[in-house]
């Protein structure tokens, strides 16, 4: 009988290195965003725009 699990068979050191690599990548992305010269977009503006997009998609789905 074969028991299947969702546990990875990768060595722990390899998994740890992947985590560290991701952490370095993520921190670099955050640092780049903080230092960006692009204009900031207020959270409320983004949320309002997304609500409009979602409402439009819901309307299209109702019509299908």
TrEMBL record:
- Which Pfam families does this UniProt record tie to the protein? PaaA2
Ranges for domain Stability determinant come to 17-49
InterPro entries hit by this protein = PaaA2_dom
Q: Which domain of life is it from?
A: Bacteria
Q: What is this protein called?
A: Stability determinant domain-containing protein
The organism that produces this protein has a lineage beginning with: Bacteria, Pseudomonadati, Pseudomonadota, Gammaproteobacteria, Enterobacterales
